[in-house]
Inverse folding.
């Protein structure tokens, strides 16, 4: 079951420069950078009262974010993320309705160790959507 919006992910070519701009221009506090080796990305979060902004930069050349930045060199919104109670159950339920999930059913985790999965953009109005469990926070 979808329970709310978790975050919006913005792909950026330079994580430190993006964090500095958000701090200096908008007064937003950007958390410590982390690495998700499995997905080949560096991340930092701006925690807001009802959701967060995830800044995401490539950690290696074969990262999906590297490919996104090739098409969008200045960066931009990469995906948005919805909270769910149970990623496998939600994924299976929507797959029964014809929705394609990315990643071939492999167990994927975010930097917090929570299960995640991605819905194919063609099956969600052209937007890449991440599903994420929030049991560990």
């Amino acid at each position: 079951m979808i329970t709310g919006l978790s975050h919006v992910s913005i792909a950026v070519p330079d994580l430190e420069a993006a964090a500095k701009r958000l701090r200096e221009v908008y007064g937003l506090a950007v958390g410590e950078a982390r690495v998700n080796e499995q997905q080949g990305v560096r991340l930092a979060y701006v925690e807001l009262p009802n959701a967060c902004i995830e800044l995401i930069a490539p950690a290696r050349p074969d990262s999906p974010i590297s490919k996104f930045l090739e098409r969008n060199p200045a960066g931009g919104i990469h995906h948005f993320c919805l909270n769910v109670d149970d990623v496998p159950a939600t994924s299976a339920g929507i797959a029964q309705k014809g929705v394609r999930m990315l990643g071939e059913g492999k167990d994927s985790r975010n930097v917090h160790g929570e299960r995640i999965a991605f819905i194919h953009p063609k099956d969600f109005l052209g937007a890449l959507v991440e599903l994420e469990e929030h049991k560990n926070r």
